[in-house]
Amino acid sequence: MPTHGNMRNMRRQRKIIHVDMDAFYASVEQRDFPEYRGKPLIVGGLPEGRGGVVATASYEARSYGVRSAMPSKVAQRLCPDALFVYPRFDAYKAASRHIREIFHRYTDIVEPLSLDEAYLDVTDDKQGIGSALVIAKRIKQAIREELQLTASAGVSINKFVAKIASDMQKPDGLTFIGPSKIEAFMEELPVERFFGVGKVTAAKMKAMGFNIGADLKKLSEAELIRYFGKPGRFYYQIVRGIDHREVQPHREAKSVSVEDTYQQDLTAVDDMLAELGRLTVKLVSRLQGAQLKGRTITVKFKFHDFSLMTRSHTLQEPVNDEGSLFHIVKRIIGKVDLRGRKIRLLGVGVSNLEKQDGARREKTIDAQLKLFAAPSSDDAQPSDL
Fold this sequence. Notes:
five-stranded mixed sheet, EC 2.7.7.7
């Protein structure tokens, strides 16, 4: 009679692909407008230091140090010859729909994260190909031939490792991290690359002498929880390559939000607005990727004494574009007295959501990492990847 442990070993491990488009907005612009090709291009933000943040930078601009979510005035200082263009979200959404249609040729278990990235579970693919690597190559080829765009893909047995893998050989990369390599890979991974480890936590880890996964692996689960709170349990699991989250093709949302914690407290309102602009860009990508609009916009503040405050504004009609959202964010900021206040965390969220076709969402998104659920019985053989 097989033991429970033996039964778990007999289960197939999943075959997970994470696909991430390369400089998506900028690449669409360069595809559609030949005069932009080969030039440093910045989508979003305003030139001449007039405000805004970078939504996406082409690889030519990135070579100057320009990055997504950077204030436009910093981007222009780094790359004075950069071309600034306003986002064309209709064009990006059209490309995203086509890309998802390509995904669905191979599996219906697709979890979009934004307009330009998604997880796919191809454990049992529609075409009976059996190899996640072959499927990833075919997806990349179809995106190149049908949309004249490039994507990077990561292939592994869980979401966490597949996502990291997709970023390893950008642009136009394909990286496979097999089951036998995962634990050694996680041991060498810098702590700032761990999903869920922000800048502040990474700095704290490094100050304590924890620079790579192997350093964290020396600690017990109880020690990690004592040092880092509840996320310590997550760190204990993930440094061992354990991630039981399933690809969720039908996530429903009541709210979508983004936030960031800062190593140094923010005290200038201009700095706060720049950060909120950056967060709004991320929020728009998530909303449009899920084809959602919302009527209630909320700004979250955490002060240096760890006290929290939220302020909201509700509109008559739902929105999901950067201009409308950031206009409301600025109105909210204008009504809050932040003089003398030190901000350690900012967040922006949207609720009262509707699908873009007007149908109201009813179920709640599972926004927390489901890392510790039991693994499903239809995981993939390592040799089948």
